[in-house]
Amino acid sequence: MNTIIKIKPLDFIWETSDPFLFCAYHEDQYPIGNEQLGPDTSLAGRNIGQDFTPKDGWRMYHGTTVPGFPAHPHRGFETVTIVQKGLVDHSDSLGAAGRFGNGDVQWMTAGKGVQHSEMFPLLNEQEENPFLLFQIWINLPRDKKMVEPHFKMLWNEEIPKTTIVDQQGNQIEITLIAGKLGNKDAVDPAPDSWASNPENEINIWTIKMDPNAEFTFLNASEGINRSVYFFKGNEIESEGYTIPVNHQIISHGHKDLTIKNGNTESHFLLLQGKPINEPVVKQGPFVMNSQSEIREAIQEYQITEFGGWPWPSYDHVHKKSKGRFALYPDGKEIIKSAQ
Questions:
Q1: What is the DSSP string of 161-200?
Q2: Looking at residue 110, what is its pLDDT?
Q3: What's the domain range around 271?
Q4: Which of 102, 97, 93, 96 is nearest to 123 (CA)?
Q5: Residue closest to 287 by CA, chosen among 29, 77, 68, 45
Q6: Which residues face 165 on adjacent strands?
Q7: What is the DSSP code string of 212-224?
Q8: What is d(CA 192, CA 242) in angstroms, rounded to the nearest whole number?
Q9: Are 256 and 217 in contact (CB under 8 A)?
Q10: Residue 338: pLDDT above 90?
């Protein structure tokens, strides 16, 4: 039996397997910024508020002045936001906030309900503001759907990274967002996450491979789901297939998967883990186990707004002078050096 189950092209929203719900991939070549931290250029010709067409190589998404996603609710799952390039300004209904990016990761457990905004401030007024973000939605099991909301920062300086050299001397650089590789463990995930139990074998890695490098994803346990997303490069080879960039490889997690890179540097995202194997009912920003629970989530949000919105605007951004930081609901603030 082959290791590879299916190879499929990637779209804006990447399909995933249980326990993951989907992965959104945002890459934008933003222009220089203005005083409002938005793009210093005309927004004419854009569908402002719903700008998902990459005109001139970038999008405003739901933003009207600054690109991004103004306040919106979530319940019943987690978001893992990996920002490889650029910055994200986070604000939420718990009073928490942050600015993170350029290798940082935010792990947020929505649990019983939270509102948050995710704006993409363009701080550089002298050069372009390149942006690359993955947001992975991970399901929560039934007994964790209604836990208290929680967010955790995984700062770039603290995220484990390892370099492997293949038999030909080519390098493979792996960043461990979740899980483990050999004797190296990722930073602990959010406490109520499906990933917090090692038996669930959750691995979230980003991988960079030198030209002509070869790497093997070693086998996990029987029943583990594995997807490898090839999002930058030219082409790779695996099990006799020649696979062009912008493709997803779905494989049996309990079997080794070997990838041989082509003649250009390539980049990948790995999502791997044990399925939750519970009913999934999704409606917009809510993910529950039944339609009645979805109705309850909508009704509660209409009444309580999950705590309301304590910030001056739904598209709140922090001062330009602010560096990377995290402000937690209990008032604790962590300030990191700017990048």
A1: EEEEE-TTS-EEEEEEEESEETTEEPPP--TTSGGGSGGG
A2: 98
A3: 1-11+159-278
A4: 102
A5: 77
A6: 171
A7: T-EEEE----TT-
A8: 40
A9: yes
A10: no
